[in-house]
């Protein structure tokens, strides 16, 4: 089937300009930092970057704003986030355009990313009236024992290209209602959507009368991130990206007794049991493995299939992979857009060759597409590979659409294989056997932060906490009580009697 042509870089530049203009964001042009698009792999605009002095000034301003913001009542702080949510709704289409242009997401997923931002704003507004502390029964007469939650300080947000706006909003919406101020260092690959988000938040701040410096954006490279990591005025560093990055950030922040919240790599698996509804499983697997061109931290990377159904399932997946429409993410029929860069394609090829050298069999996909139309872009068919064992390469996260298929005989063996990777983000089981599902969700089952039944590993909704264990970094963001990471608690003992009673029965004087 012939697919519609890719847009040209000029067309994409114009479309990005229109979106930014409608949003009202001013793009400070003329630096040597290039905004680029993976749709053609070419540059869009040059932008200036933050210097060390800019970063220092941003931290000073953010700290000053914090001193006001922390005493603003939380429900009033919620008004800022409510307004941000309204502006995101109003500009949803243009924001999604920027996500597509810079991150290569298909329209439906780009719109989904903006929806996820609106959802977290609504969640955070509700939270602004629910920052609950507990009252604890005191052992002493005439005493009240309570826990209170206070704003923490300046939060440094370091985000990745693949959710260039939603992950920022998870952190920012929650941090703001918690009374913190935010400095954002986005991925170097997605500066335009960051400028748009920063502009909308600044506008919301003006409209509700919040200090402008509750949020600062710093476009720049590693040096900006390093300053946020090392500066003791930054109370919390929330970093999303590779495990490699987290291994540097975590210890450096800890060395100054700062807090970090890490959301790192995943190597997510699904177990497909003999009783699984295969129609449902095929749909769930293909979205989780090939959606977002395999570039979600929750992407399905390993399939652990019961031997009795492996051939049938593999046949159905091979057929589905063969039909995946790959091309311009602006084309409504496309399901797989480009990889973020040629480097990502190289990493994918290296992983596939390593697995093949170990005896892995490619069942579908793996060919580069559109290399003539867009030589600098990286369009590729998602690849399905049958492997005999979980070797080192299978245990690594390759940020590309590769799905390794393994087989199992007993559930115990499947769970052991499932957990035998360094990462622990997301997981799922497809089964109609309730006992199997419950075992998978139990303490002896999946060791991940997210464990699902009859749904793939990706596409978590706002409300639940998001994050994972082991090399994934241990952080929890967005939903549930993840807000506590953005606040500090204080335990208060109040004596309203006239006696000085000491705890543990101690007597003195
Ligand atoms: C990420 O890939 O960094 O659960 C976040 C999901 C999305 C978020 C992914 N809601 O796939």
TrEMBL record:
GO terms for molecular function: aldehyde dehydrogenase (NAD+) activity. Keywords: NAD, Oxidoreductase. Its EC number is 1.2.1.3. It is an enzyme of class 1 (oxidoreductase). It comes from the Bacteria. The active site is at 263. PROSITE patterns: ALDEHYDE_DEHYDR_GLU. Homotetramer. Belongs to the aldehyde dehydrogenase family. This is aldehyde dehydrogenase (NAD(+)).
């Amino acid at each position: 089937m012939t697919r519609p042509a890719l847009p040209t870089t000029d067309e994409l530049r114009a479309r990005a300009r229109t979106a930014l203009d409608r949003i009202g964001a001013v793009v400070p042009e003329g630096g040597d930092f290039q905004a680029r698009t993976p749709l053609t792999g070419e540059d869009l605009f040059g932008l200036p970057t933050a210097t060390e002095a800019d970063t220092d000034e941003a931290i000073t301003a953010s700290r000053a704003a914090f001193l006001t913001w922390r005493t603003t009542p939380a429900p009033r702080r919620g008004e800022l986030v409510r307004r941000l949510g309204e502006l995101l709704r109003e500009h949803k289409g243009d924001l999604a355009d920027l996500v597509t242009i810079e991150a290569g997401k298909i329209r439906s997923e780009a719109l989904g990313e903006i929806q996820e931002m609106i959802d977290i704003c609504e969640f955070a507004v509700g939270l602004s009236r629910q920052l609950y502390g507990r009252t604890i029964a005191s052992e002493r007469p005439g005493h009240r024992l309570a826990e209170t939650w206070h704003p923490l300080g300046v939060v440094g947000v370091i985000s990745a290209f693949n959710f260039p706006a939603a992950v920022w909003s998870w952190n920012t919406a929650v941090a703001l209602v918690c009374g913190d101020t935010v400095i954002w260092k986005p991925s170097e690959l997605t500066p335009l959507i960051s400028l748009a988000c920063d502009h909308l938040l600044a506008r919301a701040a003006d409209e509700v009368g919040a200090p402008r410096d509750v949020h600062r954006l710093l476009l720049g490279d590693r040096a900006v991130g390093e300053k946020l990591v090392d500066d003791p005025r930054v109370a919390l560093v929330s970093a999303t990206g590779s495990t490699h990055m987290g291994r540097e950030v975590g210890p450096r922040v800890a060395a100054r007794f700062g807090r970090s919240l890490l959301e790192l790599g995943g190597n997510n698996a699904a177990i497909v049991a003999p009783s699984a509804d295969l129609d449902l499983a095929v749909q769930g697997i293909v979205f989780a493995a090939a959606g977002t061109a395999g570039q979600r931290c929750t992407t399905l990377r390993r399939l652990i299939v019961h031997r009795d159904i492996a051939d049938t399932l593999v046949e159905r997946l091979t057929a589905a992979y063969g039909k995946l429409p790959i091309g311009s993410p602006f084309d409504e029929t496309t399901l797989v857009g480009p990889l973020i860069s040629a480097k990502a394609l190289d990493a994918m090829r290296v992983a596939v060759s390593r697995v093949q050298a170990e005896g892995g069999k490619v069942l579908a996909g793996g060919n580069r597409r559109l290399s003539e139309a867009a030589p600098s872009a990286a369009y590729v068919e998602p690849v399905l590979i049958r492997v005999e064992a979980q070797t080192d390469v299978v245990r690594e996260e390759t940020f590309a659409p590769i799905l390794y298929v393994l087989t199992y005989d007993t559930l115990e063996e499947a769970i052991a294989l499932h957990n035998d990777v360094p990462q622990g983000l997301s997981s799922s089981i497809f089964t109609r056997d309730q006992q199997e599902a419950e075992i998978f969700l139990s303490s002896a089952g999946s060791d991940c932060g997210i464990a699902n039944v009859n749904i793939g590993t990706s596409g978590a909704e706002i409300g639940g906490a998001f994050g994972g264990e082991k090399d994934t970094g241990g952080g929890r963001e967005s939903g549930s009580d993840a807000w506590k990471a953005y606040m500090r608690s204080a335990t208060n003992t109040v004596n309203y009697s006239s006696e000085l009673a000491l705890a543990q029965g101690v007597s003195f004087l």
